[in-house]
Design brief:
It contains 5 helices and no strands. It is mainly α. Helix 2 packs antiparallel against helix 4 (about 125-145).
């Protein structure tokens, strides 16, 4: 690059900035307002916020590790205890969603194994296929034939009928 020889066009700034001299002895009202605001509003708010942050640092709460207590099943609720019915229904829905996710995760693992193994999927992914069959069978036994509007009470009745059929089959087999 060529050297710029025109020093007059681009003047170098002075090396020292002169201090401004006050023209009056009256204090600046903006500086007074800033100081008052700092001590009256900003300092207490900052103190409270820092105190709250120190308290939170002592008691860290990780929401993703939260464990909910198990509520009683529908079969354990009293006859007119509607709050217990509601809690049992909410617990049943959470359990159903968890079971659906378990089935989905096992299905994704099987799909990944099939993609990874290619033509050898039947011998190398046998464990995942067996696991998916077990999980799907358990899910179907518990939630199958309930439909979209299934609830905890109908699921309990379905399990009760299944148990009664199993007892009848055992009684007829032993005779």
């Amino acid at each position: 690059m060529p050297e710029d020889s025109d020093w007059e066009a681009y003047k170098v700034p002075p090396t020292r900035t002169p201090a401004s001299e006050r023209a009056t002895s009256v204090p600046n009202p903006v500086a007074i307002f800033q100081t008052v605001f700092n001590y009256v509003v900003d300092a207490p708010v900052t103190f409270v916020r820092e105190w709250i942050e120190r308290q939170r640092a002592k008691n860290k709460f990780y929401y993703y590790h939260q464990k909910f207590r198990r509520v009683p099943d529908v079969s354990e609720c009293l006859e007119d205890d509607y709050l217990c019915f509601f809690e049992a229904e909410a617990q049943w829905r959470r359990d159903r969603m968890v079971d659906q996710e378990i089935v989905e995760i096992i299905r994704e693992r099987l799909g990944a194994c099939k993609m990874r193994e290619g033509p050898n999927e039947f011998q190398n992914c046998a464990k995942e296929m067996e696991q998916l069959a077990q999980v799907t069978k358990a899910y179907q036994e518990r939630y199958g034939d309930l439909g979209v509007h299934g609830n905890a009470r109908t699921c309990l009745m379905k399990q009760k009928h299944r148990m009664m059929e199993e007892r009848k089959a055992q009684a007829s087999a032993s005779q």
